[in-house]
């Protein structure tokens, strides 16, 4: 019999012991310690004094540190970046007039043993909106650089991650020095992120080490020990933190080990290739390596080489955003061949960004290069071919070349790549990235568009007529002409079908229909792209929400000698009349705006039509589908389809590839499933070199089975006979206990999410269940489960009064279930379907409402409890606006239900009273029978009148006489009418005006004044 699961306390004690064995000093339990801060002065002072820093220097440094840690007037990102700058480079201090500036180093980077590493547990934070208490805090010379949240084995690590994120919002002051944030458990191991990181970017730490014996806590302790060892932690902070245009980043495990491997290779004065799959973050690794080179090697100069303008701009932007030393805006970028030569011969800038084509200087002699060059080449599988790489070697004979690629190398490419760069430095392949959730897997779907000649007889008659008197040769020429016309005409019809097909996807595919996902359509030519663009703009649902990005620049001179009905005129007209506008008059501005919308406003640019641009180096996490109507090969094909595999929320589970060119063999054989002998050997398992596209049916079946099993496990604890009442009790609790509904909210939410997951998984393969391996009996069983769990979810929602609490993905699921499941015709939905039960009771009467919401098999007890829950939910939604009134209503609901259960109230009488209560709640009228008439004229005055007597008070005494209480309520109403500023909610200065006016009316009782103000603020009366 296994021992009981370890508690969080046991795990925490063990982790504390681990850190003490790593050499961290234990500072104690700081649960009751006051004023815990991001920088502990006493700890910092002790370190600096030991380092020989004078008290005057310490005081001057502390003043600058105090200014840097202040979040007021700054974002957490800005404050964290400021503090990191002081940790990384030291503090410049001036101890007296005429004295030179001196640098006070806050960390001894060269001698880890000289620094003070410590940890404290249960560190109470009181400086924010509410009290928070991280489990463990790691201090480096007094700076809180690491924060750890631990969870017991049965709780998901996601809870710890969300705690870290919530704590940053609540207490940002404490996170200004944090560099690494950890969440872990003995089950799920260690996950890490950094300040400001979203939940999806917290990754599990993985490291290839020798297998060790299994011991209690080994899944958590081993990665903690590796990441937080003194030398490793200093290395992370010094070399692996990047601030990139508002986002703080730390490397993923494969990026970190790629950096370390490159450093080791460079130490031997050798180059090589870093092979990291598409979408895994090569640009960030390149930035970290460039920064390390420039800071650790005084004579080093770094040249970043790409072969695409988009890639060049992207990498330059990351370098600038990360403030890499040596990057000089408007100087590091190479703008011409002559400029390139001049900069190679000059001592600076130390960092250059150039396109490979800048090496093509004909027969000119090599430049007289200044500095020790390290050449980092992006997408090196392309830039190493032809004569350009030879010229690179001739110009920079002593340089070290490091190539970056994420595309499988064919044998020919592999030989020439090794000749220029050397062997692999580090590899991170597609299956690894998918398993680590760094990128998403790909789903491939081939769609054929049948084409046929509509009227062959008319074509033959036309040809016979037109060829009378022509020779056989002339007829052959005409036949070739007809072949071209046939291709053009059929292509136009084909495009129309593809447009309709894509529009259907935007209606039916959950990711696209939600307007969170976008798509790219790859056309065969600019002319084809223009045709597609016009077709989409011609009254389709995507009209006004699609863009076109090609290499075309409309110029009148280019069409002056072209036929008016030709392709060039068509392209020119498309751009001038349909693409460009007064707001976006140039292609450059238009394309930048379309790319921005595609990334940041997916609802406003749902589809981008491209030809060649954006298929490399364009990252848009919203992109979920790519439609291929162009023959692509090898590297180009793999890179294009990988535009879809970036992470972007839970509802994006795959990158989807839809192929209209029937290229499956090309996709599978040439790119996706290279056999091991076609890939460059990497020294590992040959099978790992293969890149696989997910088999649609196999993956779909696995996903469906997981969803079915999850729902069955959720419902397994429901006691038999498992009638609806048993499910109501399990998911909603006892309706007579108001707190039960809230306590069971998490269970209901899980039911709703798992049902939606089941529907989504089912819809993916609904029409292919038999090919997926299910028998006809299995299919019927699955369809029965779909109906059962859908009805169960809907019934629980109705019973809990949550029928309008729809999740983002529910809209599309409803359409799909109607489409695939229902055997009968869909029932027409009247406008009443949109109403809640409460609204239906008011609009149609309680008996009609019951008929619409429950079937005849539902017991009266369930109906009664369902009505109470629905009305109670409406009461809870409104209770803050008039607490006293709705408190009475809530108690009355409970009393009526109890009376019904005891048999003291007949069912019809109960329904009548429920109907009356529903009408009162829906009307919003909170007045009582004894409310004075003067008060009833204003709903706001009624609310004040109802709550005056129940305000928490110290000196305020509510008038007992109803007329006196009414007079006070009217006075308060008059003050709000005349003195309340516009748009006062959330503006402290304007709220204070209202508080100041209410204060004397409530006998200068601050407690009563604030209580009344909160009621006013919760209500809808004054905005």
Task: Describe what you observe in this structure.
This protein has 1023 residues and is α/β, with parallel strands linked by helices. The model is unreliable at 481-490, 668-694 and 804-838 (pLDDT under 50). Helix 19 (526-537) packs across helix 20, helix 25 crosses helix 28 and helix 37 (962-979) packs antiparallel against helix 38. Helix content is 49%, strand content 11%. It has 39 helices and 23 strands. Strand 10 and strand 11 (247-249) form a beta hairpin. The relative contact order is 0.04. The strands form 5 sheets. The chain has a 7-stranded mixed β-sheet with strand order 1-4-5-6-7-8-9, sandwiched between helices. Strands 14-13-15-16-12-17 form a 6-stranded parallel β-sheet, sandwiched between helices. Strands 18-23-22-19-21-20 form a 6-stranded parallel β-sheet, sandwiched between helices. The longest helix has 37 residues, at 472-508.
